[in-house]
Amino acid sequence: MSSLNRRRLLQGAGSFLATLGLNSISFQQKADRHARVLAQGTSRKLALLVGINEYDSQPLNGCLNDIDLQYNLLVHRFGFNPRDILVVTDAEATRTGILTAFEEHLLKQAKSDDVVIYHYSGKGSLAFNPNPITAIDARKDLLSGTFVPVDGDLPSGYRQIGGTVPDIMGQTLFLLLSALKTENVTVVLDNCFVRSRSRCFSGVVRSRDGGQNILISDEESNYQQQLLSRLQMSPEAFIRNYRAGVPQGTVLTAISPAQLARESNIDGFSSGLFTYLITHYLWQENSNIEAIFQKIVSEIPQQFEQTPQYEIKAGNRDRQYNPYFIEIPNPPARGVVTKVQGDIVQLWLGGIDPRTVDAGTMFAGIDGEGRITVTSRNGIVAEAKSDREVKEGMLLHLLEE
What is the pLDDT of residue 376? Predict the structure, then answer.
């Protein structure tokens, strides 16, 4: 990917709404270092990772790789215990499956000082929203951004007669975030909400068709009402809070409103362009989220017209947040040892351009231990040989650096 001039990041009040389409048509830690508590006052770090490739109509290619990227980053770089990471993919990622996972893994477990990560890679869409609670303007054609579960294909003949979908609305995600007991929340969304553009000249786009004929299910409307009741939030307070922006922590999105979220194929490894880039730089950097985003935006080819953005809870926007609200992550690295069989090891190369790694490329532990020589590579996974005993979880740097 070529390096381009940095673009202005889109931040500010109300951008959470636009990102979710409200006003637009628009993975046990095995190395001792992983047992360290990396966030001050944090008793636990919880993550829910949702990825969907296997849609019946126009499946995606890179969403499960996105989950692997995030899983390895959280475990090996940010010290998450694998038992605290719940992965929901493909057939499990129905509307009920996703919402149940959020309720059971995050809402019921997270305490006030915990760190919470929610990552979604899949399709987005737009649906007509007749619910007066969320109708904050008078337009008859008001469309709301939705997240498409694996069972979210469009009904037959929807263009002419319309139909109901089991999508999860952006407003539902807002209410779920509002119900978390901690403010140390990071949401990562790699999807978009454009219509009729699931394929384009530059590759796969993460969207499903939608519009005024697409209706939200009664189950979704009823679930929102249940959440409002549990939160003791009136419809008026909901509208007011939603207009104010992110309810907890920070939300990182692959796009600005009405843009396309693309999948990228890098030397045989398919993933979301946004997820790949943010994971790549989080392996390498100890910087705050603003500095990370500047690098991400500069890497996206200009012709893609894809500008990732982030938004921080109102009132906290002047603070320089560390990624995932973790102050001291494990040291920067180019990759990690994920499997050991004698002197043959497997490497996960999340922090280096895989195209620069060939047979003969040498790595060592970040503390200088061992010499590991790559023998073959498939995407960002490499087979290698070590000159001494190494352990799973050992972080690596490139010997030439």
Answer: 97
